[in-house]
Amino acid sequence: MFAKATKIVGKTEHGVPCTEIQKFAFENPIDYQYYINLLFYQTNGFKDLSKVVSKGVSTQSKAMMKNLENAIRNQNTLHGGPDFGNSTEPASLSGLRIKWEE
Q1: What is the domain range of residue 44?
Q2: Second label for 2, Cα 20 to 30 Å away, from 12, 75, 76, 81?
Q3: Side-chain half-sphere of 31: how many Cα atoms within 13 Å?
Q4: Rounded mean pLDDT of 27-50?
Q5: HEC string of 1-67?
Q6: Does residue 23 form part of some domain?
Q7: How far apart are CA 100 and CA 93, in angstroms?
Q8: Helices 29-42 and 20-27, axial angle in degrees (round to 10)
Q9: CA separation (Å) from 53 to 37, 42, 79, 90?
Q10: In terms of pLDDT, which residue wins out, 4 or 31?
Q11: How many domains does the chain have?
Q12: Does residue 17 fall inside a structural domain?
C-alpha cells in the first residue's frame, strides 16, 4: 500500500511529480471531491472502514448510500445543496496540500 501510495506516476502541468491519487485529483477534480466526500461519510469520518471493507452490506446501508450519493450529485437541493468547492482552478486544490511551483 505504501509503495502504491508514494509511487510517482506523472507530473502536473507545472512539472511537479505526482502520485496516482494526485494525478486523478488534478485530472478529475469534481469526481475526486465526490468520492472523497462519499468515503468520508461512509467511513464515519475515515474512522471506521468496516462498511467499505465488509462483503455483506445490508439493504438499509445500500439505501442510505444511494440517498447520500443522490444528495451529493444533485447539488440543487436544500437551498443550492452542499458546496464542496468543486472548482477546477489550481488554487482550489490547495486543500490537497500540494505545493504549486511556477
Answers
A1: 2-96
A2: 12
A3: 8
A4: 90
A5: CHHHHHCEEEECCCCCEEEHHHHHHHHCHHHHHHHHHHHHHHCCCCCCCHHHHCCCCCHHHHHHHHH
A6: yes
A7: 10
A8: 120
A9: 17, 11, 34, 33
A10: 31
A11: 1
A12: yes
Q: What is the pLDDT of residues 43-89, one digit of tens each?
A: 889 888 777 776 555 556 667 777 777 766 765 544 545 555 555 56
C-alpha distance across the termini of the chain, in Å: 31
The distance between the two most distant Cα atoms of the chain, rounded to a whole number of Å, is 49
Overall pTM > 0.70:
no
Place of cell 461519510: 41
Of 26, 37, 21, nearest in space to 72 by CA: 37
Tell me which of 73 and 27 has the higher pLDDT.
27
Residue that has been written with the C-alpha cell 477534480 in this structure? 29
CA 94/CA 90 separation, integer angstroms:
8
Q: Is residue 72 part of a domain?
A: yes
